[in-house]
Specification:
The protein has one domain. Strand 4 and strand 5 form a beta hairpin. It has a seven-stranded antiparallel β-sheet with strand order 5-4-3-12-7-10-9, with no helix packed on it. The protein has a five-stranded mixed β-sheet with strand order 2-6-11-1-8, with no helix packed on it. It is 24% helix and 39% strand. The longest helix is centred in the last third of the chain and has 26 residues.
Length: 202
């Protein structure tokens, strides 16, 4: 009799756990993250650090809830999950050359990635999904987001309140004034070289 009670309690625990898990993920939907260009119309939310967190309260954003961007002690709501690259350490704008998202608690065997249709100027051409201990890593590569450039995310079928730990790989973007000075210097160098070769010929 005691053994029967233990078996019944064990079955009840398994059924409750399975029900809770079924509520975490929407029925018939594999988790997917898509990246796109500018939606129309929308105002972007500024990303100013290379490490940030995006939260989807419903697990499917922006269709069911806005994205929430956390940057250190600051938190911003982005209704369209539309973001702008404003990474600007030491007054030098940065170009994002790769975007990575750590998705904790979700198996990489179920996650897919891709690109949004219906947006203009999709900044990357390739995405990949891989496993890391305790979750999934999604990386967007083969492209770039210039300083003040933008991108949008579409998150589908993740658990409620899912966090996406974002990392932007960046390189410094020369300012227009710096580029003009470099080009002027190069032009003077070429002119000096040409004049010198003429003098040598005489």
């Amino acid at each position: 009799m005691k053994l029967l009670r233990i078996v019944m309690v064990s079955i009840a625990v398994v059924v409750c756990a399975a029900t809770a898990l079924a509520r975490e993920f929407p029925l018939g939907t594999d988790p997917r993250i898509e990246l796109g260009g500018s939606p129309d119309p929308a105002y972007p939310t500024a990303i100013v650090t290379t490490s940030f967190t995006i939260v989807s309260p419903s697990g499917s954003s922006p269709s069911s809830s806005p994205c929430v961007l956390d940057e250190g002690t600051f938190s911003f709501t982005s209704p369209a999950c539309f973001f702008e690259n404003d990474v600007n350490p030491s007054g030098v704008g940065e170009t994002i050359t790769q975007l990575s998202f750590d998705i904790g608690g979700v198996s990489s065997s179920t996650v897919t990635c891709g690109f949004l249709t219906g947006t203009t100027g999709i900044p990357f051409k390739d995405c990949s999904v891989s496993a890391f201990e305790g979750g999934t890593l999604v990386q967007f590569t083969d492209g770039s987001i210039p300083f003040h450039g933008d991108f949008t995310l579409d998150l589908l079928g993740f658990p409620k309140d899912q966090t996406f730990g974002g990392t932007a790989t960046v390189i410094a973007t020369p300012e227009l004034g710096t580029m003009a000075l470099m080009l002027s210097g190069f032009g003077i160098f070429l002119l000096h070289r040409k004049l010198r070769s003429r003098q040598s010929a005489v």
